[in-house]
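This part of the workshop introduces the protein records we will be handling. A record pairs a protein's sequence with a compact description of its fold. Comparing a sequence with its tokens is the quickest way to learn the format. The record below serves as our worked example for the rest of this section:
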Amino acid sequence: MALSQTQVSELYVAIFNRASEGEGNAFWQTFSATDDVSEVANIMLGTTAAQDYFGSALDNDQDFVEWIYQNTFNKTIADDPDGIAFWVQELADNGGDRGAVVEAIIFAAKQPENAGPAQDQFLNRVAVSNYAAQNLDEAPADLGSLRFDDELMVSDDDATVTAAQDSIDDLADEEPVDPGVPGDEFLLTSGTDRFTGTANNDFFDAPIMQNPFAGGVSNSLSTADRLDGGAGTDTLYAELVSEFVGTDTSTITDVQPRTTSIEIAEFEALDMSGEGENTVVVDASKMLGVQKIGSAYSDGDLVIENLTTLANDGSTIRNTSEMTITMDHTDNFNSDEDASDLTVFFDEDYLVTGQQTSGAQLLVRLVNAVENEAGRNSVEKFNNIEFAVGETVVTVDISAIAADDTLDYTTVYQAIVDAINAQLDADGFSDVSAALAPVENAVFSIPVAGFQAGDPAGPLLPDHHFK
């Protein structure tokens, strides 16, 4: 068995005094096939990161214990000289095995007889580390932002856990992406626009404008416009009201812009009625190469219809997963009589996924979180797994496996893999097989049975790795 997410978090708190990120926590879980905490602790202490963090304290028993003691119990030599002296002696008695002493200190920190503020702080920091591991994929450039000091002030007060989780959410929301080179800004007009962008990141601004021919205001982004973003990552921001045919305000039509190579499209639907009842419709069938599209700062309702996944060439269909739908800072019930709604309709011909002609893979994560957390059958109450190989639907009956109370996560997933492979053979697919994927840690996705969303639910093997 490997270490659990919580065991790795305990090591991060005791050794590095910081929260773990998802990538690092997962690495240490699977780094060693053993669940020997002291072994992994010694490997951690041998890393360059530990040497930089501890400095000369790694080479001195007294200094080392004081460091770990403060990280774990938040106590200095002045606070607990007898406790530190005890662990220094333990280190000597263990032949200088620092990993073993780290494991023993962590164990002591969790015991009922040591209940109190120090224990509460340690457990709170471990909980924050688990939260970071589940919500922050990679370590930020500034590791100090995960340190339990001025950046993450986590004490025995549960309120500090919530504050730290908010800080981690902020880190997760940051996009460490090269912003590229700013390009030109193109201001659309109330007439017909023909714009071609530069090789950089251009911005197409389409505000509402006074239209003397219509006798009022109208969209500067219209069905007649032709916009080409060129290279780079380009953005279109358009304020929109309903589009009319000519000057006849009783004949409303969709806004159907023609865009190519504009990757980001944001529409601000304005409320014309004053009652929050206005709906603006954008027909996106002629918008090519869009990666992100949605509603931004809208007061009215927005409908985006006929959305496709067509690339810039107008013929290549991309996977639907390459599209992102956004709804940002829109009106709500607290500020108006009606909330702003966003509805997006894809052209069903472009709802595609997994477009590969060879080497295709399917990864299936299957877990009953409540049973898995309790160490019981991880797939209890599941009956079938159904998937398609080409045009053929393969159905695997796993009901007997799911009902076997002698199985847990270490055995049940291999049983499912065996069942899948047997069914594939029976259906004549000799070139398709299933295998176990690396171990992962399950979390609860919703509050249930006393658990909250995000709580650890034990390890699982995402086992159905088809090739």
